[in-house]
Write a structure and sequence with these properties.
The chain is of the alpha+beta class. The protein contains ten helices and 13 strands. The structure holds adenosine-5'-diphosphate and magnesium ion (MG). Adenosine-5'-diphosphate (ADP) binds next to β3, β5 and β8.
Length: 396
């Protein structure tokens, strides 16, 4: 079934370099567009990208006319960051979902313009077929499950080796914090932030057993590049946010950070989020309770979390028995209340690799094989997707 008017099932859009993309959306028996997922912000559809001859995902953003300028302003910064971070225009990173461009209505092309001309020329695809109060971000389709489901829905008797994914997550973080960028013909690197790292924004691709960071619409460069003003976002999910990077909701508990070094703070918050995610992967314990997870932005849950786990000095329920001790101390450092005491992404990756080498070598006796130690550890990724109702019950 096809609909006429705006947002039809077939859309052709063109960039200013003259490249055309043709998208084709499929519908199910009851006439709805085939959805691949839905989070708090925007539905994610599956569509055919006819030039690339593959299925992709289209994250569809729509908003009220009064919000248009504000949302576009933020999105331009993500578009220009993703262009260099992991895209078909530069080079896809194996651990970061690949970006294929943004589809916009021509009336928004001015508002969507980046100061980086190359990005405008290649990544902005214009079409009259969608409304001026929406746009589409196009990404690689990942066939697999998200890490939240893998951690929490896998039967207990199946032992998954999360260490491989841990390395890949830290590699993705390193790439973010040192992303290659070419400006005016010069190659360099720039720090970017994700701002919403958590298990439900990480997928494991089934065929390649590879970790991919998703939900990239908050990625930005946290200081001005070529006059773009830097990004002015806050981290998105309070439970995974370093306390220094949140709005001062509870100044009695968390005094505002000393200097307004936004860049350092946002980068440190990503480290905190990765630390909590590693905690859930390696320690197989929830960093946040299920009831909190299903209530978006529950500041009370967040406050309790820090009060009980971090401020009281108890921190997380880390396992300091000999076989887990090295992991425990790395994770503990990554979620330090004081962001200046957290390791950098590079240091965290180096420490992670050292622990792996220790486990494979001198430490191997500490991990009995049946608990997944040594090289014989069995890797299993769950095949079945959880039921729809389970998936709906939590924020992304
Ligand atoms: N590239 C992708 N490939 C496959 N599924 C995806 C992809 N991106 C998102 N999804 C699915 O859609 C869900 C919501 O996407 P996400 O970008 O996290 O949205 P939100 O910003 O609303 O949280 C994900 O949890 C995942 O199940
Ligand atoms: Mg999400």
């Amino acid at each position: 079934m096809s609909v006429s008017g705006l947002d039809p099932d077939r859309i052709t859009a063109r960039n200013s370099a003259g490249i055309e993309i043709r998208l084709r959306f499929a519908r199910n028996e009851i006439g709805e567009r085939n959805k691949r997922g839905e989070g708090a912000n925007a539905p994610v559809f599956r569509a055919r990208h006819e030039q690339l001859e593959k299925d992709i995902v289209v994250k569809s953003f729509s908003f009220s006319a009064s919000e248009t300028q504000r949302i576009i302003k933020k999105s331009v910064k993500s578009v220009e960051s993703l262009y260099f971070l992991s895209s078909v225009f530069t080079r896809p990173d194996p651990n970061i979902m690949c970006f294929y461009g943004v589809v916009i209505h021509p009336s928004n092309s001015e508002a969507f313009s980046s100061k980086i001309e190359e990005v405008n020329r290649n990544a902005l695809f214009l079409t009259e077929a969608i409304s001026p109060t929406m746009f589409y971000m196009l990404y690689e389709l990942i066939d697999g499950s998200d890490l939240h489901d893998i951690i929490y829905d896998t039967p207990r008797d199946i032992d998954i080796d999360f260490r491989k994914y841990g390395v890949e997550l830290l590699k993705a973080l390193n790439k973010l914090q040192k992303a290659p960028i070419i400006l005016a013909g010069k190659t360099g690197t720039v720090a970017m932030v994700h701002l919403d790292i958590k298990p439900s924004n990480i997928m494991i691709e089934r065929a390649t057993d590879t970790l991919k960071l998703i939900d990239l619409n908050t990625v930005c460069i946290p200081w001005p590049v070529k006059g773009n003003g830097g990004c002015d976002r806050n981290s998105m999910t309070l439970e995974y946010t370093g306390p220094e990077a949140t709005p001062p909701l509870f100044p009695e508990i968390f005094p505002p950070p000393l200097p307004t070094d936004k860049r350092t703070i946002l980068m440190a918050s990503d480290i905190f989020a990765v630390g909590l995610t590693l905690y859930e992967m390696i320690m197989k314990k929830t960093g946040i309770s299920i009831t909190r997870d299903i209530i978006p932005y529950n500041e009370y849950g967040w406050r309790d979390f820090f009060r009980n786990k971090v401020i009281s000095g108890e921190e997380l329920e880390l396992d300091f028995t000999p076989d887990k001790e090295k992991w425990a101390s790395l994770i503990q450092d990554m979620v330090k209340l004081n962001y200046r005491q957290r390791p950098t992404a590079k240091q965290a990756l180096d420490r992670f690799n050292e622990i792996l080498a220790w486990e494979e070598g001198p430490g191997s006796v500490a991990l009995p094989v049946n608990q997944g130690g040594g090289k014989k550890r069995r890797k299993t990724v769950r095949k079945n997707r959880p039921t729809k109702s389970r998936r709906r019950n939590r924020i992304r």
